[in-house]
Amino acid sequence: MTEDTLIAADAPPTRRPLLRALRDWRHSLLFTLLAASAASVALISVLLFLGIDHFVSQRFSDLSAERLAQTEGQVRATVTRELDALRNLGELLSKDAELNNATYYHLYLDGEIEHPVAAIRRSAAAFHLDAARLWDANGRLVAAAPSVVPPVAPPGEFAQAASRVIWIDGQPWLSASAPLMRAGNTLALLWIGRPLASVLAATFPPGGGVHVRLARPDTPVLGQRVQLTSPTDAPIWLDVQLDDSVERALAAVKQLLAWLLLGAGVLLALLLGLTLRRQLAPLGRLTQAVAAVGRGEFTPVEDVRGDNEIARLVRAYNAMTADLAKLRELERQLQQQERLSAIGRMAARVAHDINNPLSVIRGVAELQARQSERAQDAASLADARLILHHTERCMRTVEHLLAYGKPIRLQLETLDLNAVGEDITHRWHDHHPEVAIDFIPAGGVLRAQVDVYQLERVLDNLLENARQAAPAGRIQVVLAASAKQVEIRVIDSGPGFTAEAREHLFEPFHTTKRGGSGLGLASCLAIVQAHGGTMAVGDGPTGEVIVRLPAA
Predict the structure, then answer these.
(1) Is 342 domain-assigned?
(2) 436-440 and 474-482 as β-strands: parallel, antiparallel, unpaired?
């Protein structure tokens, strides 16, 4: 027993209708929509609270501190990277052959001063250096680029390459020095440098959100104070400031709230829309299906989970259409049986009332034909033959009526349709040798339970129709297996079936052939249905009839 059942059993009689109404309302569409709305509002409220509390109140300070720490690391990494780059560049320029040779010729072979000066200027211009100096081993300035720069004292140590931050004319510079060597001896000392302010401006341009300024220890701190130390020079102070003003913070808060509210509205609309669509989608399918019932189509609707009103309506509709489809099938079978019974009674009466007079007429016509032939009376002979022709047509129609009206009693055998179909096709071809016919069996054994003689009636009728549709064409009999069925296709090269013919193709007394009785395909259909099979026509431009029988 469920909880609802137990509550209803223990409740007083006056409260049972109320509990039943509440239980039914819980499964209703209204309750589902209200529950979805309540869940949406609750979810949106939680998201708003978490967004305002976490992303506005807490994350502001955390993000600001994190960005300051990252920016300080960037500043230090930038200075270190530039110093390393200058040291490597100084070592590279100190090994320049032109500079080395020009310096050697000037210092030791009384060469002209223009050559080392030109080499220094060329190197400074090529590598965008703000300053370059070349001193001899005694500390005398040999060349400089540009020619007018703040004064720089030569480093005290000439033996090895080095880089450092130094003060020049009250401004910090990033500098590097490297000795020019020749035959293991020091010829001169090369020095290159860049102002720290220009390096920082290139790395942290104005308007980028990060401001890096030179500072002094006695000035107020703007943002984060960073100290760059040097082994021999005074320390260098930098202020790192992030562009996070109160106004922008408030704008960010407003933007966040706007997006949250917009997202909440979209989420609410989405949830309501999805819920309504899911709940009301079966109604659209049900409306279409009900309209199709008026056209005689009993198509079921996809079942809906749950126990609300729409789910119960869909299940009731499916049960109703299933019953209507069964009633329609029973009605069709009864009509078919009634039609066959009426045709059988009519055929028996016609055979009784017409066959004997037709036999007399045929006998008299045959006697007249023989007499006219002996008397060589051509006109009388033609009249007699015309009477015989139409008498035969009437007698054939009576035979078809008798055959169509008789109940079909089958003597089934399990046979290979490849062998049976080939025998029937060859026998029919023996009577019509002028017709080109191809028999195409299926691969392997094609077993089915059939009555050989009834199946031969079907194939003879279909082959005769194909011959009449395309007298000069080719006929194909193709056998194949399809799922749990076997197929026999009779294909001709005729014009095929018109749309009107397809609608009434298997109806009794409907024919498209001149002089036809309209019972051939109807008889074939009755035989195939007695075997538990179906008949259909192909969709191609040529004539094609498909017989499907259950596989053994």
Answers:
(1) yes
(2) parallel
In a domain, 47, yes or no: no
Please state whether the predicted TM-score (pTM) of the whole model is above 0.70: no
Number of domains in the chain: 3
Range of the domain at 320: 271-407
Specify whether 396 is located in the same domain as 416: no
- CA-to-CA distance for 90 and 179, rounded, in angstroms? 9
| Same domain (yes/no): 240, 346 | no
Query: Residue 134: which of 144, 119, 125 has the closest Cα?
Result: 144
Q: How far apart are CA 356 and CA 305, in angstroms?
A: 69
Q: Between the CA atoms of 216, 217, 218 and 222, what dihedral angle is there, to the nearest 10 degrees?
A: 70
The pLDDT tens digits along the chain (552 residues) read: 444 544 444 555 556 677 776 666 566 555 676 667 667 766 776 676 566 656 665 666 676 777 777 877 888 888 888 888 888 998 888 888 888 888 888 888 777 888 888 888 898 888 888 889 888 888 888 888 876 556 777 766 555 678 888 888 778 888 888 898 888 888 888 888 888 888 888 888 876 677 777 777 777 877 777 777 655 556 777 877 776 655 566 567 767 766 776 777 677 767 776 776 667 667 767 777 777 777 777 777 777 777 777 778 878 878 888 888 788 878 876 776 677 667 667 766 766 677 778 888 888 888 888 888 888 888 888 888 888 878 877 776 676 666 665 667 788 889 898 998 999 999 888 888 888 889 999 888 888 998 888 888 888 888 888 888 877 788 889 999 877 889 999 988 877 766 666 665 666 655 555 555 556 677 788 888 888 888 888 777 778 888 989 987
- Helix axis angle for 3-10 and 16-26, nearest 10°, is 160
How many other CB atoms are found less than 10 A from the CB of residue 120? Answer: 26
- Which residue carries 């003597």 as its tokens? 411
Closest CA to 309 of 289, 282, 288: 282
Last residue of a domain, one of 244, 263, 280: 244
Contact 99, 93 (CB under 8 A): yes
Distance in angstroms (rounded) separating the CA atoms of residues 344 and 403: 9
Q: CATH number for the domain including 67?
A: 3.30.450.20
Dihedrals phi, psi of 109, to nearest 5 degrees:
-120, 20
CB atoms within 10 A of CB 272: 14
Structural contact between residues 421 and 488, judged by C-beta atoms closer than 8 angstroms: yes
Domain boundary among 351, 383, 407: 407
> What is the rounded distance in angstroms from the CA atom of residue 23 to the CA atom of residue 28?
9
